[in-house]
Amino acid sequence: MAERVTKEERWARAALTRVIEPGDEHGGRWLRQLGAVELLRRLTSVPYDDSALTGASEQRIQGFRTRAARAEPDRDLAAVDACDGRFVVPGDSEWPSQLDDLGDGRPVGLWVRGRPDLRRWALRSVAVVGARACTPYGAHMAATLASGLSERGWVVVSGAAFGVDGAAHRGALAAGGATVAVLACGVDVAYPRGHAELIGRIAEQGLVVGELAPGAHPTPGRFILRNRVIAALTRGTVVVEAEYRSGSLVTARAAQKLGRFTMGVPGPATSGLSAGVHELLRGGAELVTDAAEVAELVGEIGDLAPSRRGPVLPRDLLDPVSARVLEALPARGRAATRNDIARDAGTSVDVTLARLYELHSIGFVERHGDGWQLTAAAVRRPNARRGGA
Predict the structure, then answer these.
(1) Which of 33, 185, 322, 358 is the most exposed place for a label (fewest CB within 10 A)?
(2) CA–CA distance from 303 to each of 291, 292, 296 (Å)?
(3) What is the pLDDT of residue 387?
(4) Region 343-360: what's the mean pLDDT?
(5) 385 Cβ contact partners less than 8 Å away, ≥ 6 residues apart
(6) pTM for this one?
(7) Residue from 147, 163, 165 nearest 155 by CA
(8) Cβ atoms within 10 A of the Cβ of 49, count?
(9) Average confidence (pLDDT) over 290-318
(10) Position 17 confidence tier, pLDDT thresholds 50, 70, 90
(11) Side-chain-side CA neighbours of residue 272 (13 Å)
(12) Which pLDDT does position 384 carry in this prediction?
């Protein structure tokens, strides 16, 4: 598929990633109305024409102009090329069109490191996000979910942070699967520093993606805005451990707003790190416990999770009449005559006697003179609820 983006358009968008902050809908609206080349021209011209730059204060527009004057797109494009990356913009064959669901808040472009095609990977991707200060349970669940999804051919997307994010990436990598890290900084910046090796492995085996130009550093606000890209890029978002005020819940709510699948992994009711997930589940998110259940939700027809049930016991295989006869025998080792058993089972004496002999052959009942009683094996019922029938 031929690229539809001119060199001037790509150059202007690269410059604008230094000008328009992620998620800025004013800048996004100007970009949509004027195009990247014209918007950059207006922001850098002297004197400048602000007739189309409506909806923002003069002070804010001056901030745009200051950043535009300092932008060096040639340097940024050379920097991403030096780390074997590229700059992907709307109109490229690699541009994930689902990001357009963000409207005027969609990224100006995406800086990308890694060989795979971002658009193709995004078509079959799931976000796995959660608490940075996660518990061992949270880390285990994130890694297990990610490896299971990878084995089913799904791409695991997360934010490369400590805790759940890192566990998800490692789970996918360990399974030899595909994973994408969406950063809140330049794709050539290892943040957090403790994940420098992990981010390097993701760039080699998967993709590292960011809205900000090379060398840009993260801020608290950029982390929150980064989450909308994770939500829009993927088919669904799974939250593994999150407090009430957690950035991962921002991702989940953005996914809900965009009409994506939103899922949560439950934890202990007493855990503050699961409180946010439980609130998400109460609000309509889907409860999931493994990769099969995630794939059933976000996948195609036929991607069904296995049915869940306890072990099948011999008495579960009895036909309905034999089961009624067995239930009619008194418990606690007391014997009953065939007439009493037939009455309580609602069957004839002859049918009852035939079923008693069958039950005797499989070790459920035993005969004592004219009476029949349950064996010890029949009295012990592991699948029965304690304290009731």
Answers:
(1) 33
(2) 11, 8, 5
(3) 38
(4) 90
(5) none
(6) 0.80
(7) 147
(8) 11
(9) 76
(10) very high
(11) 3
(12) 43
One of 3.20.20.70, 3.40.50.450, 3.10.20.90, 3.40.50.1370 is the CATH number of 114-298, namely: 3.40.50.450
Structure token pair of residue 378:
């029949």
- The edge-to-edge listing of strands for the beta sheet with 85-88 is 85-88, 110-113, 207-210, 179-183, 155-158, 125-130, 236-240, 261-265, 286-287
pLDDT tier, 386 (very low <50, low <70, confident <90, very high otherwise): very low
DSSP character string of 291-356: HHHHHHHHS-TT-PPPPP--PPPGGGGS-HHHHHHHHHS-STT--EEHHHHHHHHTS-HHHHHHHH
| CATH of the structural domain 314-379, one choice from 3.40.50.12780, 1.10.10.10, 3.20.20.70, 3.40.50.300 | 1.10.10.10
In the chain, the amino acid numbered 164 is V
Q: Is 129 helix (H, G, I), strand (E, B) or coil?
A: strand
Say what the pLDDT of residue 332 is: 72
The burial of 202, by beta-carbon neighbours within 10 Å (0-12 exposed, 13-18 middle, 19 or more buried), is given as buried
The tokens for 13 are 């968008």
Structural contact between residues 64 and 26, judged by C-beta atoms closer than 8 angstroms = no
Q: What is the per-residue pLDDT across 82-127, written as a single tens digit (0 to 9) for each?
A: 999 999 999 999 999 999 999 999 999 999 999 999 999 999 999 9
For position 377, what pLDDT does the model report?
Answer: 73
